[in-house]
Amino acid sequence: MKISKQNLIVNLLLFVIVSFALVSSIVLNQNELTVYANVNVTDGVYYAGNTKSNKVSLMINVYWGTEFILPILDELDKYNAKCTFFLGGMWAKDNEALIKEMLARGHELGNHGYYHKNHANLDSSAQRNEIYNTNQLVKELCDYDIKLFAPPSGSYNKTTVMVASDLGMKTIMWTRDTIDWRDKDEVLIYSRAIKNMKGGDLILAHPTEKTLEALPKILNYIYSNGFVADCVSQTISE
Fold first, then answer.
1. What is the reported pLDDT for 34?
2. How many domains in the chain?
3. How many CB atoms neighbour CB 124 within 10 A?
């Protein structure tokens, strides 16, 4: 049976319209899920958790500052606060005891790459090695499976997100940055951590002397204002 050119064009247009409607429906449903969850996710990367939750998270990236880890843990204990320590592999290999202490006190471990490289400048194989090798090291040291990856220096691309996902991990950025590694100022660190705080905030920090000094005030603000300091995985899953 012959199909006229006009009928062929009409059928083609109908196909395009139906396909467009189907894709739009899928995208809309995905957007509805994101809105429903109240989680700030952009291109598969988490920048915040549930904005309607009372949970916030301190995320502490660790490549140095070893001498401040135990005092930080002690301050967190005073408030029964939990946080996520994102570990650099090259730091983790020499600090098994501290990692086990983090876990013993109920905190969460995340992955911060092995050598603190900018992932946006790496190919997929190099990115995978940075993430996978850190995961394997922590698994060998304390039988712990890491599920969160925070890109060093906040440097990532679509490949980063894909590689992390393939390894069963979520890519985590932050809502607010204390910039404590650069500005060694307790007042600034405190202000950046708490200003206009809202549920779901992911607060980036490092183990520095001034961060330790600011930490009691930060924790006091969190709990005095009806928030709870919890692990990142809990804050983004609410």
1. 29
2. 2
3. 14
Q: Answer yes or no: is pLDDT of 76 > 60.
A: yes
Phi first, then psi: what are they for 37, rounded to 5°?
-80, -15
Please tell me whether residue 212 adopts helix, strand or coil conformation.
helix
Domain with residue 49: its CATH number is 3.20.20.370
Q: Is there a single domain that holds both residue 140 and residue 79?
A: yes
pLDDT, average across residues 68-75: 98
- For residue 176, the tally of other CB atoms under 10 A from its CB is 19
- Please check the confidence at residue 25 and state whether its pLDDT lies above 50: no
50 has which bridge partners?
A: 39
CA 238 → CA 35, 145, 178, 183, 231, distances in Å?
13, 21, 24, 32, 11
- Rounded Cα–Cα distance for residues 207 and 211 (Å): 6
Q: What is the pLDDT of residue 40?
A: 86
Q: Does 223 have pLDDT greater than 50?
A: yes
Vertex 74, ends 98 and 233: CA angle to 5°?
Answer: 70
User: pLDDT at position 18, please?
Assistant: 39
**pLDDT, average across residues 203-220:** 98
For 213: left if phi > 0, alpha if psi spans -120 to 50, otherwise beta; the answer is alpha
Determine phi and psi for 111, rounding to 5 degrees. -105, 130
Higher pLDDT, 226 or 30: 226
Q: Looking at the structure, do residues 112 and 187 belong to the same domain, yes or no? A: yes
CA of 127: how far to CAs of 47, 71, 139, 162, 172, in Å?
A: 20, 33, 19, 10, 15
14 lies in which domain range?
A: 5-37
